[in-house]
């Protein structure tokens, strides 16, 4: 059951990366950026079979701590990525440099929320 939940989580993360990743890069760099993200994701997949040997030498707790640390580090780093909802994807590097993650995205839905 745990393996099934883990596989679901990995597949979900891969799909989110495939959707959110291209939105982070301007058009002229999009394929390189997505390619670099894919390479780093595949490095994790390549390293996974070697964890059995690492666990035999250093103990299972070491491997679990390593995976946990990398996961928490990834979650922290993702918090610094810009929100892309309601923004146009930049076409040039200059447009990407002008767009900051501190700007508020434009509201396309015209939905008003009431404060209670």
Tell me briefly what this model is:
The protein is mostly helical. Helices cover 60% and strands 0% of the residues.
Please describe the structure with a list of short key phrases separated by commas or semicolons:
single chain, 116 residues, mainly alpha, 0% strand, elongated
Helix content: 55-70%
Query: What value does the average pLDDT take?
Result: 81
Total helical segments = 5
Rg over CA atoms: 19 Å
Structural class: mainly alpha
Gap between N and C termini: 41 Å
- Major sheet: none
**H and E order:** HHHHH
Q: Point out poorly predicted stretches.
A: none
- Judging from the principal axes of the Cα atoms, what is the shape? elongated
Proportion of residues in β-strands = under 5%
Number of strands: 0
Description:
This protein is an all-alpha fold and about 120 residues long. It has a domain at about 1-80. Helix content is about 60%, strand content about 0%. It is elongated. The mean pLDDT is about 80. InterPro entries: MFS_trans_sf.
What layout of secondary structure does this protein have?
Layout: H1 2-20, H2 30-47, H3 51-58, H4 60-78, H5 93-98
């Amino acid at each position: 059951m745990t393996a099934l939940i883990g596989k679901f989580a990995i597949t979900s993360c891969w799909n989110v990366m495939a959707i959110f990743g291209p939105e982070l890069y301007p058009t002229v760099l999009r394929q390189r950026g997505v390619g670099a993200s894919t390479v780093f994701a595949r490095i994790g997949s390549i390293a996974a079979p070697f964890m059995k040997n690492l666990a035999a030498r250093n103990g299972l707790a070491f491997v679990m701590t390593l995976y946990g640390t990398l996961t928490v580090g990834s979650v922290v780093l993702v918090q610094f990525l810009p929100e892309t909802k309601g923004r146009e994807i930049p076409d040039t590097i200059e447009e990407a440099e002008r767009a900051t993650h501190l700007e508020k995205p434009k509201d396309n839905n015209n939905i008003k929320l009431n404060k209670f």
